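Model: Ready when you are.
Researcher: Fold this.
Model:
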Amino acid sequence: MSGIFFVLDAIYSAYTAGWESVIEVSSTHHALAGDAIAVGRTLVQLMPAEPEAHGLLALMLHCEARRAARYTRNGEFVPLDQQDTARWSRPMIDEAENHLLSAAAFKTHGTLSIGGSHSVRSRQPARSADVSTGRR
């Protein structure tokens, strides 16, 4: 099943190509991020027993959930610990965490499932209550 890693890498490459296109929401690059997430969701549906597919989708969803808070209106980068959590997408975070739980159930830890898990730990202080109240 090693061929799956080439597929996962291609999906993640497409996502990262659109990751920084925050200012130009209508840009092709921005659309790539959304398309990569859609392909990731499809892959999880086709291969529900592949923990790395769940991990990749979780990683992309966690990153995408914070898109609106990543830059100021002037285009200046906002570090994660300074982002306004009220601007994070709670539904995306919940979906991402569900995929991490699915990946963890397989008791194997690959690069992507670990990466998805790391994205949760990097925002740990801003857990559920913080997101819903918009606390910084």
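Researcher: Now this one.
Model:
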Amino acid sequence: MSADFYVAIIGKPNVGKSTLFNRLARDRMAIVAKEPHTTRDRKIAEVFSADKKFFLMDTAGIISNWASDSLAQNTQKQIEIALKTADLVLFMVDAKEGLDKEDEKIAKILHRLPKSKKIILVANKAEGVPKTDFYDLGFGQPLFISALHNLNINSLLAKISQEVPVSKETPRKEKEIKIATIGRPNVGKSALVNSLLGEERVIVSETPGTTRDSIDVFLEFKGFKIHLVDTAGLVRKRKIEDKTVYFAILRTLETLKKSEIAVLLLDAETGVTTFDKYLGGLLTDLLKGVIIAVNKWDLITKGKVFLTEKPATNKKEEKMQMASWLYYLQKELTHLNFAPVVFISALKKLNLNFLLEQILQVSQNRPRLLSEEEVLYLNKNLHKQHPNLPLDLILKQDPQNPQIFLAFSRAKITTSQKRFLTNFLINNLCWPGWPLQIVLAKPSKSKPRRG
């Protein structure tokens, strides 16, 4: 058994599993809604309590009459994997509604688990209601809580901590690289996460919008801990009709703000869309590290890749088509000319190690504050490369954010000159993968003091 300790929250839909998950994880990581079946994938959070560490898993609600479609079957499979992985199960019931047949059916499933798995019965929504009898479920007296109102949550944490084995090492949060996968719906984000992790943690379906929540997974590569977040596919505002989809998009934007680097997934079969360009602009505005991953590249051998007229029959032909794509991306995504490009297949696990290497490289390239000598040298080269710039133009780095440079000049800076300044910085500073921003500023009018 792994040294890590896993706790799964199990129960029927809409009993408050995601609310409890958010409460214990101390973050609104899971979408909470009144509609049942909002949670589809397994969300995992690292929780520290009483000098102990455990991993908490949120799952979809268990129902007896699962639909026959592949999405419902995959959702059920995620619950089965969670039960198999868990060392401890929190069986959640609704204190307001009381015991029902769905609870009894779930209890039968849990009774079939190995005796080594501890079950804690948790009755949620217990604020201001009489304590219902749940003894018929066979797990003894439940712990009555309210995840929403923080009632008895510390008692629940204490119960969980009692079951977590004492580690010889003091638990500590390791430094990690936080990566967000972003792209249009059905571009292959969930398939990429599953392939990198080596297990089906996230539901993969042909139905766009399958992933509603941001799903966190952790992996190690060459001694580095990578925190990978699979986000919900972003769509245009006018296409948002479902309230849950709206909150999922808000969560995706929240995730992007907290992430260090974003992997922008493109579809090799369809090419770059207007919305892909918008997403690229969003990432540059947020000043995030960016890696472009062109997914479904395995279709190159079938001639189904955008821009290709015939299948690539050998490595030479494939390299030529990669070169064509790179030229195509430079024209279509000019605002992402600083980002490395990786051609991958999430399904066939093609070039995934190279993608992970690029993640490490971009993280190591993170912009830093320059010395006065470096800034002076930068300004000297600036006027050599563009003699027509205003003579008084000086670049200064923002001391609070190394990715922002202030351009001081009393003269008007044109749009093309501003674009040149951005490209000049990208080309002269060795920070591949990171956008840089020019902010125009006027020099101070105050006269310098005489010595």
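Researcher: Key takeaway?
Model: The CA atoms of residues 389 and 417 lie 7 Å apart.
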